[in-house]
Design a protein that fits this description.
Length: 157
């Protein structure tokens, strides 16, 4: 193992928190487009630049969980990684990215993107608290007072 469990889960919390902030930015930007505070070109260029960092952060977290042997958490992260990869792979040729300014107002694309962002927010919020719980449990498993023997408490700090 490269990192201790508390440090791994602290990094997981930080990574998930960063993705949560990014998703709140996505929701705010999409709602600004919905209310006509932004035009489609501005909105899509702002959102498309953050799609790849969101995927990289999620894959990095899944990789860390894999190399540390937290199989269940890694397997729970795989469906979201697969869905985000599917979103990027299924972008039609000629589009500028996942968020395309020419199609965002057609066929309910704006509502679909807003729904997907809300699903992502719920998913990452659940995982944020799961990682927080795992960090607390891993901190409680370790011995906070270093003892030489079972009955003797160290007095030299």
């Amino acid at each position: 193992m490269i990192l201790s469990d508390p440090l791994l889960f602290a990094m997981s919390i930080a990574d998930t928190g960063a993705i949560l902030f990014l998703l709140v930015y996505f929701v705010i930007t999409l709602s600004d487009l919905e209310c006509d505070y932004l035009n489609a070109q501005q909105c899509c260029s702002r959102l498309n630049q953050w799609v790849l960092p969101k995927i990289i952060a999620h894959v990095f977290l899944s990789f860390l969980l894999l190399i540390h042997g937290h199989w269940i958490l890694m397997l729970l992260n795989l469906p979201m990684a697969a869905w985000m990869a599917y979103e990027v792979v299924t972008v039609p040729s000629g589009n500028l990215g996942v968020y395309d300014p020419t199609e965002i107002h057609n066929r309910g694309q704006l509502k679909k993107h807003m729904r997907d962002c809300m699903i992502y927010l719920g998913y990452y919020l659940i995982f944020f608290f799961m990682y927080l719980y795992c960090m607390i449990v891993s901190l409680l498993k370790e011995d906070p007072i270093n003892r030489k023997d079972e009955g003797e408490i160290m007095t030299d700090f």
